[in-house]
């Protein structure tokens, strides 16, 4: 109904919109040491102040919540819609090639800089969507609030503070994900496990093993120290393991010990198929070696059976399950440390709607007990799910389809978004799975056309949801 007006208005504000985004990108808003009145350090607080000034300039009613979040309201009726974005960013490296991380650059239809895609660009798109509705005097029966946080990348304690004061709106979307709409985020079960055993003096033996340091990252490297093993036996087993796992095995000898290194490919634990797990590849190799059958070696071989290399669906632990709406379970062994008297590790599981603590958590706990290991207690984080047939999801899909001409279908993901803890929250834009924005990586960028289209889609959704 208002498409022509919204399009013309936002097209006319393109340069201004990009300048506002550049101003935010220039602020290094990585979390740092807390100071008085700055719970996440100077950078995030400075970003909130700048964004609050933008919202105030454009006529929104602004409130700062103790430098955890800043909000901007528009409309006079009941607040029914919250749009939730964040201004903090992840760390940077020295390996950027197009520009420096906090020196925004427009090139070849893209805007480069840390935060352009995650999540300063989407935040500016949402702000300009509200500005368009306001300055075009499009009538709203209910009001909308833009919530800009500053701790999404380090645990979302900003939202914990905010929702300790305010109530969740009837509808919430975050432009911190993919189009068309993410309405389902799998449940999560991340647990540690451990075992103790007597040392063995017999040779050959495994002296130590370690791999992985984050529970939610498929490890790309692993290493072990072996003692009393003939290199011919290692080479024979390594050739077989390399063929089976596609991992790279390298070693060197120091006296009676062999230092073994394994190279795979790291990936996010929610998409294990994108990586090549170096820890499970190492376990596969160890299971082929003529190691003395002591208790420690038995535990390692058990782990190799429980987490077969290349199998990320829980089959080795008999918890493989899937449903039509949320897809298949994923389960990855991401951390393992072994000595001659103990081992400790951690796994990450992303669970579909059909998973429960009875058919997943308890089954895994029993499997570890049967293998002589103890799993950490506690329940799974439940699935976050807003039904696909809800009027909210369908309205967002309608706005997406209206502007893109593409039939949209709700997405289920293994990762978590900024709205995972909100009962009625979904992720809506600003990216698509087809474009690699280098989010969290070097040379992060946002396609300017996508940013502009997102602002228009958001404006259309605001008008529909607030009426």
Describe this structure in words.
With 467 residues, the protein is of the alpha+beta class. It has 2 domains: 3-186 and 383-465, Aminopeptidase; 188-375, 2-Layer Sandwich (Alpha-Beta Plaits). It has 11 helices and 26 strands. It has helices at residues 3-12, 14-25, 42-57, 120-135, 157-162, 231-245, 278-288, 295-306, 357-370, 391-404, 448-465; strands at 61-65, 69-74, 79-86, 105-107, 110-112, 143-149, 171-174, 177-178, 182-185, 187-196, 205-211, 217-218, 221-227, 248-254, 257-263, 267-268, 322-323, 327-328, 330-338, 342-351, 374-375, 384-385, 411-413, 425-427, 430-431, 445-447. The strands form 7 sheets. Strands 14-15-13-11-19-20-10-21 form an 8-stranded antiparallel sheet, with helices on one face. A 6-stranded mixed sheet has the order 1-2-6-3-7-24. A 3-stranded antiparallel sheet has the order 4-5-26. A hairpin with a 3-residue loop joins strand 1 (61-65) and strand 2 (69-74). Helix 1 packs across helix 11, helix 2 (14-25) packs antiparallel against helix 4 (120-135) and helix 4 packs across helix 11 (448-465).
């Amino acid at each position: 109904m208002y498409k022509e007006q919204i399009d013309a208005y936002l097209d006319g504000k393109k340069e201004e919109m990009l300048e506002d985004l550049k101003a935010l990108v220039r602020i290094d808003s990585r979390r740092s040491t807390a100071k008085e009145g700055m719970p996440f350090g100077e950078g995030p607080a400075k970003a909130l102040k700048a964004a609050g000034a933008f919202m105030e300039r454009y006529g929104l009613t602004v409130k700062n919540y103790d430098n955890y979040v800043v909000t901007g309201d528009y409309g006079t009726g009941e607040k029914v819609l919250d749009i939730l974005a964040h201004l903090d960013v992840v760390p940077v490296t020295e390996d950027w090639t197009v520009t420096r991380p906090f020196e925004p650059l427009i090139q070849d239809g893209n805007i480069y800089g840390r935060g352009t895609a995650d999540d300063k660009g989407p935040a500016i798109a949402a702000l300009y969507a509200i500005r368009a509705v306001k300055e075009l005097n499009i009538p709203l029966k209910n009001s909308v609030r833009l919530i800009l946080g500053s701790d999404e990348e380090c645990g979302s304690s900003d939202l914990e503070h905010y929702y300790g004061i305010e109530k969740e709106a009837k509808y919430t979307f975050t432009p911190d994900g993919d189009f068309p709409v993410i309405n389902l985020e799998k449940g999560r079960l991340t647990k540690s496990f451990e075992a103790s055993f007597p040392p063995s003096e017999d040779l050959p033996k495994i002296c130590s093993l370690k791999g992985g340091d984050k529970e939610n990252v498929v490890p790309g490297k692993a290493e072990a120290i072996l003692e009393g093993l003939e290199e011919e036996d290692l080479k024979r087993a390594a050739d077989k393991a390399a063929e089976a796992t596609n991992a790279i095995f390298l070693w060197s000898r120091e006296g009676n010990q062999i230092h073994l290194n394994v190279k795979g490919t790291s990936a996010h634990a929610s998409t294990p198929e994108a990586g090549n797990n170096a820890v499970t590849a190492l376990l596969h190799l160890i299971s082929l070696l003529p190691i003395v059958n002591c208790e420690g070696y038995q535990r390692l071989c058990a782990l190799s059976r429980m987490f077969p290399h290349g199998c990320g669906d829980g089959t080795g632990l008999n918890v493989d399950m899937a449903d039509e709406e949320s897809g298949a379970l994923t389960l990855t062994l991401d951390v393992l440390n072994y000595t001659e008297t103990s081992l400790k590790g951690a796994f990450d599981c992303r669970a579909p709607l059909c998973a429960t603590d009875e058919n997943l958590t308890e089954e895994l706990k029993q499997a570890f007990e049967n293998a002589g290991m103890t799993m950490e207690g506690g329940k799974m984080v439940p699935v976050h799910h807003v039904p696909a047939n809800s009027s909210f999801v369908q309205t967002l899909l309608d706005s997406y389809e209206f502007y893109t001409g593409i039939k949209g279908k709700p997405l289920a993901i293994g990762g978590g978004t900024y709205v995972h803890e909100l009962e009625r929250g979904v992720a809506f834009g600003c990216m698509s799975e087809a474009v690699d924005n280098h989010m969290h990586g070097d040379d992060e960028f946002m396609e300017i056309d996508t940013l502009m289209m997102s602002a228009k889609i958001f404006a259309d959704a605001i008008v529909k949801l607030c009426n």
